[in-house]
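Q: Start with the shorter request: fold the first protein.
A: Done. Sequence, then structure:
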Amino acid sequence: MGSARSGRLLDAGAAPLGIADRAIGLLSERASAPSVGDAASTLSAMLADRRRVADEVARSVGASASAADAEFDEAIADGARERDRGLDLARRATDVLVAASGGGAISLSHPAQRLSREATFFLIQAQTADLRRATMHRLVTDR
């Protein structure tokens, strides 16, 4: 996993992708409606891409942990941007699950509600200064 220098960044990135994966799984179970199945397929492809890129970034951060500060700082900045993308995917996937679940999703015991709360928690908890800047930039710019 690299040195202690890189551990904090890498540890926080997996949870949002796990939340997205669970939300996509629950959407797939409800895929009898074509629009839900299409959404699950699209989100699943996005998740596969996020995981691939996250693995690449993790390798880059790990490899640069003993490198010069500038190289390491760039790898960390890449990692922060990728964490933001993972957090965004978790929110999107849980929002789609809530929409597909309808009114039942408002219940505290409903899995869509719980996953949505978890995605929001990680959006807040995972915030470093770099990630806050990336998140705020993403939220106020066109996609």
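Q: Next, the second protein, separately.
A: Sequence, then structure:
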Amino acid sequence: MRTRNSDKQSLVKQKAIELLGRDGFEGFSVNKLAKACNISVATIYIYYKDKDDLIISILNEESRRMAESMIRDLDPQLSFEAGLRQQWKNRYAYMMENPSLGRFFDQVRSSTYQKHFLDNFMGLFQSTIHRFMRNVLDRGEVREMPLEVYWSVAFAPLYSLIRFHFEGQSLVGHPFQLSDEVLWATFDLVVKALKA
């Protein structure tokens, strides 16, 4: 039996994330992954029983890491603006440090793996965010609204700016690079909208 090599296993995960983010689930295969890693297909099967096992393993590990990153330094007692600012800092840092994972999770959102991702991601994340939002609502800092409305106003602008940054162009095709000035000016508009 062949032995496991943690460096090769890390390479397999990294390349799988890149390929899945770029080509989607339909364009992904273990053969393509082996070629991208410059290893044999048999080597991949030392670490994972099949393609599904590989994807679920990545989802388990990365969704947990993402959740921990997004609630880092988020004290549930913070004011609404301070807590939301911390979440924007965390999300922005995570996405900028992990662009391949951002594209990977975009693919997951429209796949059969979405439920698995959410089940894994929501544990610790949901508990902390729920306590933060409960405190904010109890203090009357924002009014209660459906989660989908809140998320769309609170975070969709951030993710749109990050997407424009990675694409290198604005909605109308002008060169675009996200700056701190644009990031935090957008954040101020989001806070005003949610406090209105």
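Q: Describe the second briefly.
A: Residues 60 and 156 are 24 Å apart (CA to CA). The mean pLDDT is 93.
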